[in-house]
Design a protein that fits this description.
Number of strands: 5
Oligomer: single chain
Number of helices: 7
Number of domains: 1
Strand content: 5-15%
Radius of gyration: 14 Å
Strand order of the largest sheet: 3-2-1-4-5
CATH architecture: 3-Layer(aba) Sandwich
Distance between the termini: 15 Å
CATH topology: Rossmann fold
Length: about 130
Protein backbone atom coordinates (compact mmCIF):
# COMPACT_ATOMS: atom_id res chain seq x y z
CA UNK A 1 0.00 0.00 0.00
CA UNK A 2 0.98 3.62 -0.47
CA UNK A 3 0.63 5.32 2.91
CA UNK A 4 0.67 9.04 3.64
CA UNK A 5 1.35 9.48 7.35
CA UNK A 6 -0.28 12.36 9.18
CA UNK A 7 1.88 14.83 11.06
CA UNK A 8 1.56 13.25 14.50
CA UNK A 9 2.46 9.81 13.17
CA UNK A 10 5.55 11.27 11.48
CA UNK A 11 6.62 12.90 14.74
CA UNK A 12 6.00 9.76 16.76
CA UNK A 13 7.69 7.44 14.26
CA UNK A 14 10.75 9.70 14.22
CA UNK A 15 11.10 10.55 17.89
CA UNK A 16 8.56 8.84 20.13
CA UNK A 17 7.82 5.40 18.65
CA UNK A 18 6.32 4.22 21.95
CA UNK A 19 3.34 6.48 21.18
CA UNK A 20 2.51 4.51 18.02
CA UNK A 21 -0.36 2.06 18.23
CA UNK A 22 0.38 -1.54 17.29
CA UNK A 23 -1.61 -1.04 14.09
CA UNK A 24 0.40 2.06 13.12
CA UNK A 25 3.71 0.37 13.94
CA UNK A 26 2.78 -2.67 11.85
CA UNK A 27 1.88 -0.52 8.84
CA UNK A 28 5.07 1.52 9.12
CA UNK A 29 7.48 -1.42 9.44
CA UNK A 30 5.81 -3.51 6.73
CA UNK A 31 8.38 -3.39 3.95
CA UNK A 32 5.73 -3.90 1.29
CA UNK A 33 4.21 -0.49 2.11
CA UNK A 34 5.51 2.70 0.51
CA UNK A 35 5.68 5.51 3.07
CA UNK A 36 4.94 9.13 2.15
CA UNK A 37 5.02 12.44 3.98
CA UNK A 38 3.61 15.78 2.93
CA UNK A 39 5.30 19.14 2.73
CA UNK A 40 2.12 20.29 4.51
CA UNK A 41 3.26 18.34 7.57
CA UNK A 42 6.64 20.07 7.53
CA UNK A 43 4.85 23.42 7.20
CA UNK A 44 2.53 22.52 10.10
CA UNK A 45 5.52 21.63 12.29
CA UNK A 46 7.26 24.91 11.46
CA UNK A 47 4.14 26.92 12.35
CA UNK A 48 3.26 25.07 15.54
CA UNK A 49 6.86 24.96 16.72
CA UNK A 50 6.97 28.74 16.22
CA UNK A 51 3.87 29.04 18.40
CA UNK A 52 5.68 27.18 21.17
CA UNK A 53 3.62 23.99 21.05
CA UNK A 54 5.32 21.37 23.24
CA UNK A 55 4.33 18.50 20.92
CA UNK A 56 6.10 20.17 17.95
CA UNK A 57 9.59 20.72 19.37
CA UNK A 58 11.44 18.93 16.57
CA UNK A 59 13.80 20.50 14.03
CA UNK A 60 11.64 20.38 10.87
CA UNK A 61 14.64 20.50 8.52
CA UNK A 62 16.30 17.57 10.25
CA UNK A 63 13.02 15.64 10.33
CA UNK A 64 12.55 16.10 6.57
CA UNK A 65 16.13 15.04 5.90
CA UNK A 66 15.79 11.91 8.04
CA UNK A 67 12.47 10.96 6.45
CA UNK A 68 14.04 11.13 3.00
CA UNK A 69 17.12 9.19 4.16
CA UNK A 70 14.82 6.50 5.55
CA UNK A 71 12.99 6.08 2.25
CA UNK A 72 9.90 8.21 2.77
CA UNK A 73 8.63 9.91 -0.39
CA UNK A 74 7.69 13.59 -0.20
CA UNK A 75 4.37 14.78 -1.59
CA UNK A 76 4.61 18.50 -2.36
CA UNK A 77 1.58 20.75 -2.28
CA UNK A 78 0.21 21.46 -5.75
CA UNK A 79 -2.67 23.63 -6.94
CA UNK A 80 -4.76 20.51 -7.66
CA UNK A 81 -4.41 19.54 -4.00
CA UNK A 82 -5.55 22.98 -2.86
CA UNK A 83 -8.53 22.83 -5.19
CA UNK A 84 -9.43 19.35 -3.89
CA UNK A 85 -9.67 20.76 -0.36
CA UNK A 86 -12.57 22.90 -1.58
CA UNK A 87 -14.50 19.77 -2.55
CA UNK A 88 -14.23 18.19 0.91
CA UNK A 89 -17.24 18.41 3.20
CA UNK A 90 -16.65 20.45 6.38
CA UNK A 91 -16.28 17.43 8.69
CA UNK A 92 -12.95 18.71 9.98
CA UNK A 93 -11.70 22.29 10.39
CA UNK A 94 -7.91 21.78 10.55
CA UNK A 95 -6.47 23.06 7.25
CA UNK A 96 -3.38 20.86 7.47
CA UNK A 97 -5.39 17.67 7.94
CA UNK A 98 -7.74 18.65 5.13
CA UNK A 99 -4.76 19.20 2.83
CA UNK A 100 -3.33 15.79 3.76
CA UNK A 101 -6.63 14.15 2.91
CA UNK A 102 -6.88 15.99 -0.40
CA UNK A 103 -3.32 15.00 -1.29
CA UNK A 104 -3.94 11.37 -0.38
CA UNK A 105 -7.06 11.18 -2.50
CA UNK A 106 -5.49 12.98 -5.48
CA UNK A 107 -2.34 10.86 -5.39
CA UNK A 108 -3.98 7.48 -4.78
CA UNK A 109 -2.59 7.16 -1.25
CA UNK A 110 -4.14 6.00 2.00
CA UNK A 111 -3.96 8.67 4.73
CA UNK A 112 -2.91 7.02 7.99
CA UNK A 113 -4.10 9.08 10.96
CA UNK A 114 -4.78 9.00 14.67
CA UNK A 115 -7.47 11.66 14.21
CA UNK A 116 -10.97 10.17 14.41
CA UNK A 117 -12.46 13.32 12.83
CA UNK A 118 -10.40 12.78 9.68
CA UNK A 119 -11.35 9.11 9.76
CA UNK A 120 -14.99 10.19 9.41
CA UNK A 121 -14.24 11.04 5.77
CA UNK A 122 -14.13 7.31 5.09
CA UNK A 123 -12.55 6.41 1.77
CA UNK A 124 -8.81 6.73 1.65
CA UNK A 125 -8.32 6.99 5.43
CA UNK A 126 -6.85 4.42 7.79
CA UNK A 127 -7.49 5.27 11.43
CA UNK A 128 -4.84 3.88 13.77
Amino acid sequence: MKLLLDTHLLLWAAGEPDKLSDKARTLIIDGSNDLYFSSASIWEIVIKKGLGREDFRVDPGRLRKMLVINGYIEVCIEADHALAVDALPQLHKDPFDRMLLAQARNEGLQLVTVDSQIASYGDGVINV
